Amino acid sequence: MITKGIAYILFATFSFAIMNALAKDLSGFHPMQVVFFRALGSFVFIFPYMLYHKISIRGNNPGMLLLRAGIGVLSLSTFFVVIQRIPLGSAISIRYLGPIFGAIMAYYFLKEKIKPLQWLSFVVAFAGVIVLKGFDIRIDTLSLVLIMISAITVGGVFTLLRYLGTREHYLTIINYFMAAAIIVSLFFASGWRMPLAEEWFPVIGIGITGLIGQVFMTRAFSMEATSVLAPFKYMELVYALIIGFFYFGETYSWLPFAGIVLIISGMLLNIYAKQAKTSVTE
């Protein structure tokens, strides 16, 4: 059964895949300027909406909100640096080890239970990521280090979203992240330039698609446990491989297709494990 939380995360991953493709399309810009485009495009919609509907700007847990924002900015910044250096599919394949880190962090810090069959589903999905990545010689050491930092911090973001999801309005969480990203990116403004006419579409689009993905992802994590949603984040990798092939001309061997099968198998196995767990407790 596809729950509302799972449906939301699937739509969020599609939106993020489009956003990532637009970010890569802006490779002629400083990575932190791309972060600025991403954040500002969302902030200009969210902040006025929050003021009009009298949604708390400060929130109830400013310390945790700032922590989530800071970790999110680090994750997004390192990711945008890397996608300008290596193929989109390879970057996302490594970054989305993050959901596994998130599920493990939630297990230790939020005491969310994970059944043995769910652990197996994570292993299957992880194996799919490894197969998808394959032996890509285009990945240099610095890019690998940066994308691993991004993956670990993604796990931290997922865990904090699960903690904050029932305590804060989802727009308050997003607004903190956008504001922090704008402030941090401005420290790198000396290397920026104005967009050309044909570049305005991805500049505007990256903010809109990022906002859509952020809203639906935050809502998803407020509805479902991290351990359930984590494997579904890998769908972004599937979308990225398709976009990378047709738009950027990024080619891979047959191994990515085997990886896709493994990832989907891991997702289905996780759903089965979750449903079995629910039926036992009912």
Topology (elements, then pairings):
Elements lengths: L3 H22 L5 H22 L9 H22 L4 H8 L2 H12 L6 H18 L7 H24 L5 H17 L13 H24 L2 H4 L5 H13 L7 H27 L1
Helix pairs in contact: 1-9, 1-11, 2-3, 2-8, 2-9, 3-7, 3-8, 4-6, 4-7, 4-11, 5-7, 6-12, 8-9
Can you walk through the features of this model?
With 282 residues, the protein is an all-alpha fold. It has one domain. The protein has twelve helices and no strands. The protein has helices at residues 4-25, 31-52, 62-83, 88-95, 98-109, 116-133, 141-164, 170-186, 200-223, 226-229, 235-247, 255-281. Helix 2 runs antiparallel to helix 3 (62-83) and helix 4 packs across helix 7 (141-164). The two termini are 16 Å apart.
Compact description:
This protein is mainly α.
